[in-house]
Amino acid sequence: MWEEQSHRECSPEKDAYGLDKYKCNLANLHRPTQPDQPTGTDPRTVTITTRQAATLIAQGSGITRQPPGPKVVISMAFIVYTNPAVRYQTTTILGTAIEVEFTPVSYTWNWGDGTTTTTTDPGAPYPNQTVTHRYQHTAT
């Protein structure tokens, strides 16, 4: 069993894309003096908070855009979507290898024109698109 300590040493920051990221001191996560003993050969479940795992960056599925390419047609809806599959990543915390499951619960689409859209929908390709954006003018 792991014990959670104060998060006073975690500070939210923004990454290059304006998304929240956290820098945390993982020294706040420590073993109790008498840890629970695992039973049998089953793997042990270790529960940590999102702040404790915040230094992990999930490998994304990428974004597909329609029409493809670096240019956008102003008069058309710009379609985006991503794969909503659960991602798994293995890391080590205090000498214990753990597998972290990343399950998307929301998506924030930063359109690069000062606007964003947050949704629980990963989007879909044409003709069933669900996440679109219309640019009002060309980039300067």
TrEMBL record:
InterPro entries found in the cross-reference section: Ig-like_fold, PKD_dom, PKD_dom_sf
Residues of the PKD domain: 103-140
Segments of this protein annotated with the region Disordered: 116-140
Biological process according to GO: carbohydrate metabolic process
Compositionally biased tracts (Polar residues): 127-140
Protein name: Zinc transporter
Species in which this protein is naturally found: Actinomyces oris
Lineage of the organism: Bacteria, Bacillati, Actinomycetota, Actinomycetes, Actinomycetales
